[in-house]
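Example 3.
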Amino acid sequence: MKHIHIIGLGLIGGSFALAIRKAFPEVHISGFDKNDQHLEEAQYLGLIDEVSEKPSADTDIVLLATPVDVLPELSKKLLDEVNAETLIIDLGSTKATLCKHLSDHPKRGQFLAGHPIAGTEYSGPRAAKEDLLNRKVFIICEMEKTDVHLKGKAYELFEALNLKLRFMDPEEHDLHLAFVSHLSHISSFMLGKTVMDKMEDERHIFDMAGSGFASTVRLAKSSPEMWTPILKENKTHVLEALGCYIEKLKNLENSIKRDDFESVYRQLKEVGPIREIMDMD
Amino acid sequence: MKHIHIIGLGLIGGSFALAIRKAFPEVHISGFDKNDQHLEEAQYLGLIDEVSEKPSADTDIVLLATPVDVLPELSKKLLDEVNAETLIIDLGSTKATLCKHLSDHPKRGQFLAGHPIAGTEYSGPRAAKEDLLNRKVFIICEMEKTDVHLKGKAYELFEALNLKLRFMDPEEHDLHLAFVSHLSHISSFMLGKTVMDKMEDERHIFDMAGSGFASTVRLAKSSPEMWTPILKENKTHVLEALGCYIEKLKNLENSIKRDDFESVYRQLKEVGPIREIMDMD
């Protein structure tokens, strides 16, 4: 591995840069971000060695860490252009549209559809952390469609970065992520909005908010620029998850309205097993 | 201060016991919990020096850390019985019903309505932590109704425990807490329920859940025994907060359904100021 090119130098792209630098100090990292300020910051922070809009001919791996709506066209264009020994890996949070878009591409074998389950509520190059990816799950979709000899490069990278690989088909990925990630973000954003709208001009209200509120609303600090495209690309599954969630909330609301607190208790109690499940790790 | 009596030896009562022990090593702590196992654990863990269902005549302060539905009757009964120099402080998450219930009590001056904004998703004596209350906000309602000479005792305790005092009327307290605490718990419980119902028999799904999901669903581990009474006591305000929340979720759902992602973006973006507000601390 000699040269890695990263497009999108925010939280995820930047964290890959830092982790790669640590694992492969000799690798040359070039990169690009269409946000000028982010590009400057990425250089200043030492995330990349060189600014370059396109990967050069000797690039081993191109990592794509842009908002998901950009990925299908960008991936296609890059596949058209890159050398036969270059592998393109995307790191987006939705997979079905992208995989479908590339399915008939003659160079599909040079592409790997990935998704690191890692992040924070912050964004941009300054949010990048060297250990963000350490021991995190990395989901790979349609692994069988990537050329065997290029998979070697990918595995070398993933192993050095301490990623735990999981394999899944794109539809399954998008459905599951809608429930365990995209819905959490919606819930957090709208919770923040509810409190802000109600508590207008009453900033001291947040004084009364304990760690519980901070925890449930943390994701509301996430970037709308990243998250709007995710909700768009995964519309069907997101609507399914959101519909289920609203239904649960309305059931609880109805029980409270009817003063049926035995039912309220049962509804809360049923969530009990999540304690063991969430402590599994 | 010589003797403090604590009724309810779970997360909050137990944490007060530990903090008091540290701040006032010479104070005798007696206590009670109607859950036999919790009472035994509280002794074993050294939270209390003595088991006693009722405070003895020399008790300076009685702390009530039971579920909120028990508090009105329990407080009244204790007020009827205690000596003139004993102050009763409740630590419940709802205040209006309780304060109303005690408003005409001839010994109302010996009562102080308080609420520490502190907690974790765990419960019972084993969840108690010596530093849980350190530097946390402690809300006091109707402070003017507590006798001046007993307030001295209360201030001595609060100061030693490093609590930051805030004053508020009971209705205001309950309304605000519905939005910044009770709604967060509902959101978390129902989010956990949504994912568990959908992902039945697919435990590996939680493998794919990142720190974001863990954060939003953390409060779903809270005790239904504590939380059902809170939702009941604060029914009106909880329904208001929950109604607002469901409305925001439905607005977002509609925008997604209509493919109006400019509106989705705007709705997410509007939550932006919460970043500064939540980082204020």
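Chain A touches chain B through 88 residues (CB under 8 Å). The two ends of chain A are 32 Å apart (CA to CA).
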